[in-house]
Design goal:
The protein is of the alpha+beta class and about 250 residues long. About 35% of the residues lie in helices and about 25% in strands. It contains 8 helices and 12 strands. The strands form 2 sheets. It has a 10-stranded antiparallel β-sheet. A two-stranded antiparallel ribbon has the order 1-2. Among the domains are: about 90 residues, SH3 type barrels, CATH 2.30.30; about 70 residues, SH3 type barrels (Roll).
């Protein structure tokens, strides 16, 4: 727009108008003396919906482009959306379909961990047939996560990330996608029940290799290949006592 004014005069007038301008505080985007640019021309709630839609659309596009990874990609996304929430998982159990439920405790590269009042359950994605949220259950994470912010933890993550994360399972699950092998390495000495298509084996985790896990009971050692594993369940004390008693009885009267 032509004003017929010299640049210096125009600039002086513009600055004067700017000083006299009545400013209105933006209650959404303005914080203190700073103002952030809106992420889009749409309201925040609409922008959030669009972002979630685009993320899911991209996931389905990627999954359809590599069908061999589709199941793993979809399951990982579903379980991440349900972290610390109750889910129902249907998986292959010795030729039949078994249903179990629990809170999503950890999401790995090739497995998920569910926990309930009694057990910790490791389920490889390859054996999962379907997963869903139970009807009538609220979808929320632990309430304290929204209110407690640990400034000391923030400082440690900034200055000593590797050592800080390595000391806490929750942070490992948050920042890394472990493999089943890597996760079981940290459970050496724990008694578990390993279920394969042919048998159920009880034992203490002694060692873990790339292809298998070694379980040691009172009287025997068994190697369970990950390719054959349907799921793992932590053994409760009562079951361990029964198992040891059975093995001792068998040894005495063999």
């Amino acid at each position: 727009m032509r004003t017929g004014m010299r640049h210096s005069d125009y600039l002086k007038t513009l600055l004067e108008d700017r000083r006299n301008e009545v400013r209105h505080v933006d209650p959404i985007h303005e914080v203190g003396n700073q103002i952030t640019s809106p992420p889009s021309a749409t309201p925040l709630e609409e922008n959030k919906i669009i972002a979630e839609y685009l993320e899911q659309k991209n996931l389905h596009t990627l999954a359809n482009a590599v069908p061999e990874f589709k199941k793993t990609l979809i399951l990982k996304k579903f379980f991440k959306m349900k972290r610390n929430q109750e889910v129902i998982v249907y998986f292959d159990h010795q030729g039949t379909t078994k249903e179990t439920s629990g809170k999503v405790n950890a999401i790995g590269r090739d497995f998920v961990i569910l926990t309930n009042l009694k057990d910790r359950i490791w389920i490889p994605y390859k054996t999962v047939l379907s997963a869903n949220s139970p009807s009538g259950m609220p979808t929320y994470e632990n309430a304290h996560q929204n209110f407690i912010y640990d400034n000391d933890l923030k400082r440690k993550l900034t200055t000593n990330f590797g050592e800080t994360v390595a000391k806490r399972d929750v942070l490992i699950h948050q920042f890394f996608e472990e493999s089943l092998r890597g996760n079981l390495e940290r459970y050496k000495g724990v008694w578990v029940k390993a279920v394969t298509p042919e048998e159920t084996v009880w034992g203490k985790i002694v060692s873990v290799t790339e292809e298998s896990v070694l379980l040691h009971s009172v009287s025997s050692k068994r190697i369970i290949a990950f390719d054959d594993l349907s799921h793992l369940t932590s053994a409760r004390l009562f079951n361990r006592v029964l198992l040891m008693g059975k093995n001792v009885f068998t040894t005495l009267f063999r």
